Amino acid sequence: MNSHTHLSLLVRLSDESNGLAWSEFWIRYGDLIRGFCLRRGLQAADIEDVAQDVMFSLTKAMPGFRYDPAKGLFRSYLKTAVVRAISRRFGQNARQASLGAAGSSSVASEEDHDTQWEMEWRRYHYRRAMGTLESEFSDRDREVFHRYATLGQPLQEVAADFSLSDATIYQIKSRVFRRLSETIRNQVAEEG
Amino acid sequence: MADNQTTTWFEDEALLMAVVRGDAALTTPVIAGYRDLRELKRGGQGVVFVAVQQSTNRPVAIKLLLAGGLATAGARRRFEREAELAASLRHPNIVRIFDSGVTGDGSPFLVMEYVEGGPLLASSQKPDVAMLRARMTTMMKVVGAVSHAHQHGVLHRDLKPGNVRIDNTGEPRVLDFGLARSLGAASLAVSASGQFVGSLPWASPEQLDDGVNTDTRSDIYALGVMLHQLATGSLPYDTTGPLSAAIDSVRHRVPESVARINPAADANLSTIISMCLAKERDRRYPSAQELASDLEAWLEGEPIRAQRDSAWYTLRRNAARYRTIAAVVGVAAVCLGAASAVAIRAASIAGRERDAAHEARGRAETVTGVLTGMIVSPDPTIDGRDVRVVDVLDEASRDAGTAFRGDASSELGVRIALGHSYSSLGQAEASLREAERALAIIEASSQPRPEDRVDALTIRHTAMLEMGREKDAVAGANENYVFAKGLWGDTQERTLEARSVLAGCLEGAGEHAASVEHKRAILEYRRERGEPEGLIIALNNLAVSLSSAGDLSAASTLLAEAHAALVESEGPRHPNTVVTALNLATLLKQQGLAAEAMPLFEEAIAGATEVWGPEHLQTLSARGNRATALTDLDRPAEAAAELELLLAIYRRVAPEHPRILNTLSNLASAHRAMGDLDVAATLFEEAVDRATVVLGPTHRSTLMFRGNRAELLTTMGRAAESAPLLERLAEDARQELGLDNWVTGTMLHNLGSARTKIGDRAGAIAAFTEAYEIFTRSVGPSHHRAVSAAEELAALFEADGDGKSAEAWRGRAVAP
Questions:
Q1: What's the rounded Cα separation, in Å, for the pair B480 and A192?
Q2: How far is B119 from chain A (nearest CA, A)?
């Protein structure tokens, strides 16, 4: 069993003494939890506290945890844990002033939990997939994708900078996109 | 949101790209002076971006650390200070830090040189010789970088392959100096109570203890782990799996030597790496500079300087596995047949010979390199030569005098190491010789280290103990122990070793109570320290004392514990497991539990045959003990056949060995059990005569044989001859073994039987009464020996017409 699949991570987590599995879990989901908290408007220091709370409550729940797909998706389970942790700390109306952090998008406090969670969840999958694909594509291809697809720089400009034809730029973008899509599909499938 | 929307967002280009762009916007900080931030990678500590520095248009890397890490002003200041320190480092192999700061939302960031290139460790295959040299050359530069940082007061604290990049010119560049402390929630801290681990494989034992008290040597440890990885493709310990097991591995497990795992490496490189990985900081390289020098020396093919300390340390650590477990002197009950004394010696001679041959084949030039390689490295393939370990040691001993002329301190280390090696091979005389030489060097030196003196004396006393000169050694051993205790306290390893030798000497000198007291204390300390190896040896040693004192059931309880632990940690075929199984079986048999003992005997014999070979003394001893158990189980014909075989083998391979006496005696018992009393009597005679000459008339084994012979005479109806023999025997036993020893009790019991036969009822009663008292004291009133004595007394009083006394004794004759 590939020890990096989601399910096997859950299995390893239920062995409460397995600190390394927890560490992986933390690294994997930490950003997700933090990102969600950020969207909810929490301050930086509070985010850390909440994240720790979540992990702690999970450690208590995890030993003996048996993942049962019939009982619902893991991500719903995790979301509930995070939402509970936030409300335990800050009460039901966790509307802190927006951070106005440099570079962070505006926190739409009108959005409900589900939407925000879904957004974070997608980001989490995207980032994981990109991590997996890092070794598959060269620096150049990733740079091309970043500038053309993500930043939306004009096709000709990117082609000129890299001394490649327009068609090649387009092909690179398609290839990265396709792999990204496939990888995320696999991730979502294994997640249950 | 409906399910079908969520499952196809990643197939829809618009939706997926929205996520991609949203993420880029969200996670890209805006930092004044830098543009075009693009995420490169993400790790436990934070995100790394590549960016362009506006003022210079050069690419830089920006590391954005986890949000929320620096909520307080204090944390921020600490971070700034550490960043400043790190920024002050200028070295070709250290990634430069240009700038640092904190974003609006409290996230600290660092601006660093952007290093394009690849990872340090790209594959987990074992490198061949050329690749190994290349990697070590790279590591030498890494170590040089670490050394530079140390000299400027900066510890790294998180060294691992992930923190070293190889740039496009092939140079290593080390990242992230000195930042571990101020990052708090990052990936370093480990505790069983729920903090999380990122760098456990590279964490030193002291970092696992409290993480606070670390110094340059913690970095050196991490470098050792990296060296091990680069040399073998794998980590020195398995740190997957349960956290507690991983931590335990780091704290206690001695890693397999690099030369063993990868034949492309040699003993010297193993030594260097072992010295980095020492559990005790004092045993590591004191500075990165010295490590770098030794790596350079290794690359140049010159002698490395680490060997002395390293050899000593490794040998002590690993020699513990092979350390002599004191003999269980199994002296059997006369009636049940004599069990043999089991001398427990060191590990696989066969294995050692193979190791030595391997080392001889590929070995480097220096003496201690050979020693370390020998003890630390394992199974090799021999290229046809059959080199005995002892020969290697002898050669080393000869060389040491000349090779280290003028370098007394190195020679001292070698002598001590040799002393240990000889000892663990059972070569007591040679061990003693080395210890004496070591002591001579110490005496001649102007500033002898107390550790060296204690070590040399411990070896010397151990050797004397093994040579049977315990009485001579007691005083010195006591002094040594007291000295060590004064310097380092009772819990320190050296003190424990000195104390253990003292206890052994006391045991041999007949001071059982004192010996037991020390051994109990040692056992307690070993239990506290939780070191399985030391604990097992302590269990064995105490069991030996207790069994000598006759407390067989306590001894067998301890041995059962040790045996279980050994089967678990070393497996059933490890020499110590085999020896412990054998000892335990012997004890069980002596308690009359022959049926329980048999499976253990079988296990021990199978193990001994595999470990040492079918004709090794250890294996023969196991077979002999099993044969006596066969006699107990009413299978004397089988026992006799086996013992005849063993006798023949002994006469062929070790004609002078005292074990022959036991074998003769056991064979006699077997014949006796078959009813061939004349044959038995003859054999006992022979045993007694030999023993009197070889061991002396009052040696416990001689006493046993005399007892066996006398008891047989009684059985043959020659009580008139046996009674006076037994009287003398009982007296000798009282003197030699004491009044708390069941063997004395047995002699008295047999005397009682003889006197009964010749009609001396009063004398018989006196003898049985004394026997009963001794048995009660030593093995307990419900032990079958005590019961038997009580029965005899009941019968005697009955015959005397003293019904009341008879009744009283019958009451005591209740078996459990």
A1: 67
A2: 12
